[in-house]
Automatic annotation (TrEMBL):
Keywords: Repeat, Signal. It comes from Oryzias latipes (Japanese rice fish). SMART domains: TSPN. This is Thrombospondin-like N-terminal domain-containing protein. Residues 3-165 form the Thrombospondin-like N-terminal domain.
């Protein structure tokens, strides 16, 4: 059987409230990426709630970074008590391409292919937050290890790491072809093929960004997160 709460479909995976995805942070973010990188996301919400799409926790289980999908806005959390909101509707049943640019102590959230953005500083220092060894946890689809926290329920087509904070501003050129076409495909939840193995893990593998018709400067290598 597939891992609990994880349903594969043509363009990615669907997560429901039974999904439990957690990994050591240093296994998700490759060495040398932090603190200058971009996260490129392609997601679609299936349930209206205020769940976190992902969360980075310190070794002391403090919230360091998280993206919360709230009706009418995207809330960027950059510390236990630090957050900013971008007016945007993530619960309209459509696919949404988003990006976060992390550059030192600053984080920028982008939507609408860079036409909308909001910036915030991290609300923690290296002593209480992330060390150079990236000691901490990565949670996907929720904000804490408590089962009472709301779970993200929806589809994930892309979750890529690009070793360049500047890449986030032009992130739509990094959206994969199948994610651009994903909105034309409505996943059929039965039968569930292919079936994923029992054990859930997260790995980073090299990927190539989409190139435009014009000659451009060489783009950074990206790393995709996969459930394997």
């Amino acid at each position: 059987s597939a891992p609990a709460g994880v349903i594969p479909f043509k363009s990615g995976v669907i997560l429901n409230q039974q999904a439990h995805i957690e990994a050591p942070l240093r296994s998700v973010i490759p060495a040398g990426f932090w603190p200058k990188l971009a996260l490129v996301l392609s997601v679609r919400s299936h349930r209206v709630n205020s769940a976190f799409l992902f969360t980075l926790l310190s070794r002391n289980k403090k919230l360091l970074l998280g993206l919360q999908l709230v009706p009418g806005s995207l809330v960027l959390h950059t510390g236990p008590n630090t957050s900013v909101a971008l007016q945007y509707e993530p619960h309209d049943g459509q696919w949404h391409q988003l990006a976060l640019g992390i550059n030192g102590q600053k984080v920028t959230l982008y939507a609408s292919c860079g036409e909308q953005s909001i910036q915030a500083d991290f609300g923690w220092d290296s002593e209480e937050g992330l060390t150079s060894q990236l000691e901490g946890s990565f949670l996907f689809g929720r904000t804490s290890q408590q089962q009472v926290s709301a779970h993200f329920e929806g589809a994930i087509c892309q979750f890529d790491l690009v070793p360049s904070a500047q890449a986030a501003h032009n992130y739509c050129r990094y959206i994969k072809k199948q994610c651009r076409e994903a909105d034309t495909y409505r996943p059929n939840l039965s039968p569930l093929l292919p079936i994923l193995p029992r054990r859930t893990n997260i790995s980073a593998t090299a990927a190539t960004p989409k190139r435009s018709g014009l000659q451009t400067a060489r783009k950074p290598t990206t790393f995709s997160l996969h459930l394997v």
